[in-house]
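quick q for whoever's on today - can somebody do inverse folding on this one?? i tried earlier but teh output was garbage lol. tokens:
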């Protein structure tokens, strides 16, 4: 995986609610096609593709901090850090409904018993309090588990199986799901509800 693929751009909907992070190449493609605009984190000014090139592109031989720019044959273009979609206004600021995918993202793809990373196709959901004993399928009672740990725990409580949870399951906020497994860019903070964002050390 290249450095470009690891770098992320915060994506806001039309009413400036965070809805995702995308790779730099995808962000630039959205702006180039007129489906998004770049947002300056300091001034909140928005730029379409032409405006971004006029303001944030320099000659290919100019001296710049290379990490901050993408080099083309004739230009070096500043990488965006935040974009806003031109039309899409989805994801109202409401609670996050329970989903298997959400559990996977909340738990960062790790088994909550042994800590190994689990592929989505091999994931299982464990009910901390088993369904057979009245446990609900809900955020506070479900965790991501590898098949081995789920089999060992079976229809028991973790303590009964001699197992311990790595993290207490909670209902995540939308910001936490969006930023799960992503390095938080400090310049995103004005666009996020900081009290809901769990910043990983």
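ok took a stab at it. sequence:
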């Amino acid at each position: 995986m290249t450095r470009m693929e690891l770098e992320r751009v915060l994506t806001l909907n039309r009413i400036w609610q965070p809805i995702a992070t995308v790779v730099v190449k995808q962000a630039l493609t959205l702006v180039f096609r007129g489906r998004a605009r770049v947002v300056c984190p300091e001034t909140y000014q928005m730029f379409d593709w032409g405006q971004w090139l006029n303001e944030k592109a320099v000659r290919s031989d100019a001296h710049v901090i290379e990490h901050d720019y993408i080099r083309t044959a004739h230009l070096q273009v500043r990488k965006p850090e935040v974009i806003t979609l031109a039309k899409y206004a989805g994801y109202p600021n409401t609670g996050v409904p329970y989903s298997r995918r959400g559990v996977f993202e909340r738990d960062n793809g790790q088994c909550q018993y042994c800590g190994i990373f689990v592929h989505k196709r091999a994931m299982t959901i464990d009910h901390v309090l088993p369904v057979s004993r009245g446990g609900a399928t809900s955020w506070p009672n479900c965790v991501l588990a590898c098949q081995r740990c789920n089999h060992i725990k079976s229809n028991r409580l973790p303590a009964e199986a001699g197992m311990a949870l790595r993290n207490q399951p909670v209902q995540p906020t939308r910001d936490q799901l969006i930023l799960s497994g992503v390095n938080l860019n400090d310049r995103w903070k004005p666009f996020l509800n900081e009290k809901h964002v769990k910043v990983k050390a």
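fwiw The first helix runs from residue 3 to 6. also The chain is about 20% helix and 20% strand. so keep that in mind when u check it
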